[in-house]
């Protein structure tokens, strides 16, 4: 149970942590290696406070003189009845924790086995796509170290697939 409102006790999972920043750096590096025509022009971190998002890292890439914007946003949803507002995040968490076993159950926090769902959203209005993947919680109250370590491990293992997805959109 969350005792204090977020304006008094901020959610630590809305801030990027070292593992989150490392995942984003490796993903960008993967895209740059896979497509030699792409260059990173600039990268900037900013705060946002909207619907579960906390911070964002905005990247501007250029390919064949066309500017491409990609935003990596940190997500933290706490104690929702349904996590259906971000299906890719939900599925990423489910697949990792349940070893890719498919579920026919509704997308509830009870069925997912967590009160808090954390992840990174990748959004590009330039390329017209948005997707997310789950990462572990760093909140000392709500984290489950074995599960959270497994979520980070899955995120690292699937970075190549996300890099391929971005390259296809380029």
Task: Please give a structural write-up.
This protein is of the alpha+beta class and 170 residues long. It has one domain (12-169). The protein is built from five helices and five strands, in the order H-E-E-E-H-H-E-E-H-H. It has helices at 18-34, 87-97, 109-112, 145-157, 159-169; strands spanning 38-50, 53-63, 66-78, 116-124, 129-134. It has a five-stranded antiparallel sheet with strand order 1-2-3-4-5, sandwiched between helices. A hairpin with a 2-residue loop joins strand 1 and strand 2 (53-63). Helix 1 (18-34) packs across helix 5. The longest helix has 17 residues, at 18-34. The radius of gyration is 16 Å and the shape is globular. The mean pLDDT is 84.
What labels would you give this structure?
170 residues, alpha+beta, five-stranded antiparallel β-sheet, 5 strands
Could you outline the blueprint of secondary structure elements for this entry?
Elements: H1 18-34, E1 38-50, E2 53-63, E3 66-78, H2 87-97, H3 109-112, E4 116-124, E5 129-134, H4 145-157, H5 159-169
Helix pairs in contact: 1-5
What sort of overall outline do the alpha carbons produce when their principal axes are compared?
A: globular
| Strand content range | 25-35%
Our Rg estimate from Cα atoms comes to 16 Å
User: What is the CA-CA span between the terminal residues?
Assistant: 43 Å
- Which structural class is indicated by helix and strand composition? alpha+beta
Strand count? 5
Poorly predicted residue ranges: none
Tell me the number of structural domains: 1
Largest sheet: 5 strands, antiparallel
Strand order of the largest sheet: 1-2-3-4-5
Mean pLDDT: 84
The helix tally amounts to: 5
- Work out the helicity level: 25-40%
**How do the helices and strands follow one another from N- to C-terminus?**
HEEEHHEEHH
